[in-house]
Design goal:
Helix content: 25-40%
CATH topology: Rossmann fold
Strand order of the largest sheet: 6-7-8-3-9-10
Number of strands: 10
Length: 290
């Protein structure tokens, strides 16, 4: 499978745009772009949520979009499935402006894992999984629902259960199954694991990455957790104050690339790991362990 490469116009703080050759000169594009943000902008009155972002996401890539709260990452993601409409620029999916596509077509081609899971509480698990095709005028068979449950490592019998009968991790797995129900070309996830405990979060992250490879998906994941981004993604986009400020592979970021804002985010998991390593060392005041 082709590894992801993005071709953005980058910004660093208040500086002007820098050319992609400074970060991508040694790489060549091998796959077409499935998604393009063309000077995409979203304003709310005088407030700029997204300020003219331009980048292309290659087919088959797994991209993490990170940044602090209010950086514009979720707003940018929601432009893809028209939950947010650009006030300037365009978002192209498969070369077509997303605002010109029929909602049913967009729902079929783009799977969306909501922040906070977002299951319908009065629908069974099976009905929740089948809602996307249903809105597109199609019926998902019971066999397909069972197949999707097994894909996310849930028992097929869970199709008849209600969401409040499931754990948080199980509900989020149902959310992933629902996003995959229409055999999408693109999977977008908005803080998909934020409400989960660390063990469940790690296991589900690995499962999503496995499904990305197995199903040949293109995946974009919004997260505020840089460790999660570094571990799961092929490339990491960093946003700050509505601007794209860095675009690098995880290895490049760990080697110091990306500028001050990106390195500030990388420093958090690195410092946590260093503190844990120090805690594992013997305490000199207590002498050698018996």
């Amino acid at each position: 499978m082709a590894r992801g490469r993005l071709v953005p116009r980058l910004y660093r703080g208040g500086a002007g745009p820098i050319t992609t050759s400074s970060t991508q000169s040694s790489q060549t594009q091998t796959s077409p772009a499935i998604l393009t943000f063309d000077a995409a902008e979203r304003r709310y009155g005088e407030t700029v949520a997204v300020g003219g972002v331009t980048c292309a996401v290659e087919v088959g890539s797994f991209v993490a979009l990170v940044g602090s709260s209010g950086s514009g990452k979720s707003t940018l993601l929601k432009m893809v499935n028209t939950l947010v409409t650009p006030t300037g620029g365009r978002v192209l999916f498969g070369g077509e402006d997303v605002t010109s596509l029929k909602p049913s077509t967009l729902r079929r081609r783009v799977g969306y894992v909501f922040q906070g899971i977002g299951l319908f509480p009065h629908f069974s698990v099976g009905e929740n999984i089948a809602i996307g095709p249903r809105l597109a005028g199609e019926k998902l068979s019971a066999e397909r629902v069972q197949e999707l449950l097994e894909l996310v490592e849930l028992e097929p019998e869970m199709a008849s259960r209600m969401p409040d009968e499931l754990s948080g991790g199980q509900r989020q797995r149902v959310g992933v199954a629902r996003a995959l129900a229409g055999d999408p070309e693109l999977l977008i996830m908005d803080e998909p694991f934020g409400a989960l405990d660390p063990i469940t979060r790690d296991a589900l992250g690995e499962k999503v990455r496995e499904l990305h490879e197995k199903l040949g998906l293109t995946t974009i994941m919004v997260t505020h957790d840089m460790a999660e981004a570094l571990l799961l993604a092929d490339r990491v986009l960093v946003m700050s104050f509505g601007q794209l400020v860095a675009d690098h592979t995880p290895r490049e970021l760990l080697a110091g690339a990306g500028g001050e804002i990106a390195q500030g985010l990388v420093a958090v998991p690195r410092q946590q790991a260093e503190r844990l390593a120090l805690m594992e060392r013997p305490d000199p005041a207590k002498g050698p362990a018996a």
